[in-house]
Give the backbone structure.
Amino acid sequence: MKANRGAPGPDGVTIAEFPNRFRPRWPEIQQQLLDGTYRPGPVRRKTIDKPDGGQRLLGIPNIIDRLIQQAIVQVLTPLFDPTFSESSHGFRPNRSAHGAARQVQRTIRRGYRYAVDMDLSKFFDRVGHDVLMARVARRVDDKMLLRLIGRYLPAGVMVEGVLQSTDVGTPQGGPASPLLANILLDDLDKELEQRGLHFVRYADDFAIFAKSRRSAERIMASVTRFLTDKLRLVVNQEKSRVVASEEFEFLGFAFRKSRATINVSTKSIQRFKHRIREITGRSRGISMEHRLSLLRSYVRGWMGYYGLASQLKLFDRLDQWLRRRIRMCYWKQWRRPRKRRRELIRLGVPIRQAIRHARSRKGHWHMSRTIASGVGLTNAWLAEQGMLSLKTLWAELAPLRRTAQC
């Protein structure tokens, strides 16, 4: 929780305050856990925007409940994880989205050219408590632990200070939620394996593959019935579809041509540019040092994920666009002609050229591409200011890509 800089729950206790606030109370809480009388608190409702335009509802528990949930997860994971499918990659030790993308690539290369791209409507909000607890009880005999888990599910949610009941769902935001989701969806994995189907799942995102469109359509119909009848889940019919592998996107990646080359999806590139525009917005009143710090943090994290893609030319184009955005920010920050002239001369631009460009009435975006900006605000100078290069980061990730291929 410290590493994630977790937000406080409904009680308002922060991570910094937690040790001093709860250390005196721990003997009482510990005894309640041992007696089976502990009552979890409700979660705090947090709404975040989804990339597709919808909203995701998060439930943020109090820190004490996150601590207890994490303890439960650390005990249950060694019990459940070895039984999970090899095609399940989400929220599991030593597994990642990169492994899921590699499995998709291998499956397509084996001739499975059609994907059943299925979407579960509000999965975490619609998990049936009785269905979930029945599956947890298959491997957990401790009735006190089962009772504690069962109390977390209907603990309620605080929405603008009002407590609302939670008869269904397992709120995203708590440490136990991903494991409980995997426990429930493991039944789906086992059903697909029993049918001999090729599939990849990452939490509630999954796809099933077939060699023909007709087979894929039959699979989609039968799996929809299984999810509805057996697991009581709702399939989003508008977003679920059968699609050719070249049009298929999974976890932000696209798989192109016969070799299923892993590319960054178009939507992911659009989201990247949207975030960069937010950071480099001309009207944003922050210093260049802070702006570059935000940019470094975002770019490094983005490349850490999308560096799996084999698209050096894409990253080169994005690098050029990023540098132009930053040059535009400097030109905007310098504002007045005298300041611009002085800064350009300091950066090595000839005096007459610096004067001519400093007096220009053309827009910031146009001026960011001028010779003066290119000579003065060179790539090397921008790197000295702390700007990262996507191409350089991609090259540094080459050993990881080779390891993933193996």
Remarks:
- The chain has a mean pLDDT of 90.
- Residues 312-334 form the longest helix (23 residues).
